[in-house]
Design a protein that fits this description.
Elements (H helix, E strand, L loop, with lengths): L1 H16 L6 H21 L1 H4 L9 H14 L4 H19 L6 H4 L16 H10 L1 H21 L4 H10 L9
Helix pairs in contact: 1-2, 1-5, 1-8, 2-5, 4-5
Length: 176
Amino acid sequence: MFFWHVAATIAITRYSFRDERMDLRFLILGAVLPDLIDTPLGLAGFSRLESVRLISHSLLFAGIAMMWIVLATRRGRPRKKWMPIAIGILIHLFLDTMWANPETLWWPVLGGSFTPDGASSAGDYVAAVLQDPWVWLGEAVGFTYLAVMARRAGLGQGTSRRLFRETGQINVPIGT
């Protein structure tokens, strides 16, 4: 669920942190990173792993990402620029309701296996996802939110697109 993860992560973060200057490019990267890593690996090894939510959907992965950012950056502007990746990863785990998949969320504390997705094959998993109306509803809501934000930010204009491309910021005030 690409649009759902991106839109919900932006909305939750903007209204929780109230930081209009946050680099949304890094936040978006964190919002989709667990799926970018785990889905291809999970589909390729589905017969053995029985899941597409693997290591990147664990708290260990989120903790390593955050620790790497803290150790690799200095306080202030550099850390503030990179921290949205870790925030995006954590929100991704929340949006995927990973607490319902404890073997994966707490991997490897609860063992070396991941919570099975319940499908008998990768093809069955993909078919189930594509037929799930909640997936389509989430994608529609996410796409609509992003379209409204893009319009409000004036991303149809070159200067607004350049601002986003160079800084990751959009010119949309966060309401009170």
